[in-house]
UniProtKB/TrEMBL annotation:
Assigned keywords, A-Z: Membrane, Transmembrane, Transmembrane helix
Gene3D superfamilies hit by this protein: Mannose-Binding Protein A, subunit A (3.10.100.10)
Name of protein: Killer cell lectin-like receptor subfamily I member 1 isoform X3
Gene (UniProt): LOC103566901
Transmembrane segments: 37-63
SUPFAM superfamilies reported for this sequence: C-type lectin-like (SSF56436)
């Protein structure tokens, strides 16, 4: 091409508008938003449940603190309850006395129980 021919040419710009382009689609036919699972609501509900469980556990802890599973006049050592009698009785009288208390006589088998019973006899 010669310089004289270039000056005669015109440049034209245009914008193509296609029927299904993304720009046109959003303007004419807005797509409905996808329905998402309500994670925020579930998280709030679970948080509230955890809070009340924590309160319940704390309350039960205070109620059971110092809880003695043994009856009155009985002493606790580990998982066992002991009743110490200062009355002198024969073997048979002693057996009847413990049967009345719905219990049985015991033998001391380990050092912990021996030290515990020594404190009360």
């Amino acid at each position: 091409m010669q310089p004289s021919e270039m000056s005669k040419e015109r440049v034209t710009y245009t914008e193509l508008k296609l029927p299904y382009s993304k720009k046109q689609k959003n303007k004419r036919h807005p797509t409905p938003k996808k329905r998402e699972f309500p994670w925020r609501g579930v998280a709030i509900i679970l948080g509230i449940i955890c809070f009340f469980l924590l309160l319940a556990i704390t309350g039960l802890g205070y109620m059971c603190k110092g809880y003695d599973p043994c009856q009155e006049k009985w002493f606790c050592c580990g998982n066992n309850c002991y009743y110490f009698s200062k009355e002198e009785k024969t073997w048979a009288e002693s057996k009847m006395s413990y049967q009345d208390l719905c219990s049985s006589r015991t033998k001391v088998y380990d050092k912990q129980d021996q030290e515990f019973s020594a404190d009360y006899t």
